[in-house]
């Protein structure tokens, strides 16, 4: 009980600041066992309630403590098909670990690290835990989008014996897991191993398939018994200030996709980014995306990287670990500032004007609203600016199906419990329903939809969708 939380091994900050290798190095078997023995084995484990998909944490941790990692993996797999990913990127401090009773002592059980350990052990040992279907049902389901919501939905449906095809617009499956979250937080080989597992179970992936362009939803509905839409929230928001069209201004989406997925850091890349070596980079925003963009710039050799956020550190939505890592790697933070314009020479960015802010009353999000401080304006030199202030719903597919009910935020309107949309046989989940959220919430939504697709396949009599029943997201 008196043991302190076992710290994750990490790559040295100076070395990792110029390397795309994974920062966290995982637990050894001894560390995992030691950490697992810190569990108090609560009669009513609050951590399970804190996990959006209800992983039976108490059970799996007990198996780790007794050294039966395979049994631990079987417990996790019941609720979470992508544990190596969740163990790395879930905001555990707000979920399972936030609910752990040890949080009162300031050192909650390292549930995410343990989950990662178990998942990595199973992969490294080449063990296969999920069996494919023994029988096929002859039913067909199309999944649009290969992010965590689509993958989770596909994983459940394939195990029931249905024919499942995932249609993905990009050339590689994984959604934000591959084009957004950088290699140093989530190695691509981890994502591809999870996807290979789904392929082995029989899930088919059709890449470069843009539903709404190369395929229509009507075609998918004609060829399948049900369709799940998990196209994410990949439409970047902009600051809407003068100078955003200057050369040197990127959305975080574009910047990260070019570097992560299209390998822009290689001289031979067809989709290069501007050379940031020894340049001054500013990043607007305070979420995980801002941290990822800043830390990626640092790894590309930038001279000075600065995160500019209009509130204070306390209000930053980024995971605490990411902020700590960013700081250790030399990223600078300027709080309570908001850009009012970007300026340049001959169409190329050279700097920006910053308005200083102060915090007022809380807004709808519960965070204190920033207000400009009269007359407190300054300028800052910059060669590259990356806008990471959030994303909206991907509009491409939706623009081709006006009959699909949506919310005033442009997301798809669904019945929250079932993922049912206003179109019979069409289900939706993940960021396209909630707006930008988290991997595990997207997975949970994919699994809920998979369960109601099962019901639909048994009894496809849901002919009308009552808009009154559709809960706004
Ligand atoms: P996505 O992952 O966005 O996948 C949607 C897929 O659909 C994409 O592959 C897209 O190409 C495809 N698609 C779109 N339109 C079409 C079409 N018309 N036809 C076919 N395919 C289409 N969450 C965490 O929990 N932890 C983190 O640390 C974290 N870090 C993040 C860092 C970044 C940079 C970003 C951008 C997000 C991060 N998130 C994080 C959020 C998390 O990644 C998302 O909430 C999650 O990926 C949403 O999953 P999804 O399945 O809804 O959509
Ligand atoms: Fe915690 Fe995420 Fe694992 Fe659930 S899936 S136990 S929230 S790390």
Overall radius of gyration: 23 Å
Indicate the CATH architecture of the largest domain. 3-Layer(bba) Sandwich
- Oligomeric state of shown chains: single chain
Q: First CA to last CA: what distance?
A: 42 Å
List bound small molecules: flavin-adenine dinucleotide, iron/sulfur cluster
CATH class of the largest domain: Alpha Beta
Strand order of the largest sheet: 5-4-3-6-17
Report the portion of residues in β strands.
15-25%
Counting structural domains, the number is 3
- Estimated structural class: alpha/beta
Low-confidence blocks of residues? none
| Helix count, DSSP H or I runs of 4 or more residues | 18
The total beta strand count reads 17
Shape field: globular
Any idea of the CATH topology of the largest domain? FAD/NAD(P)-binding domain
User: What percent of residues adopt helix (DSSP H or I)?
Assistant: 25-40%
The biggest beta sheet is recorded as: 5 strands, parallel
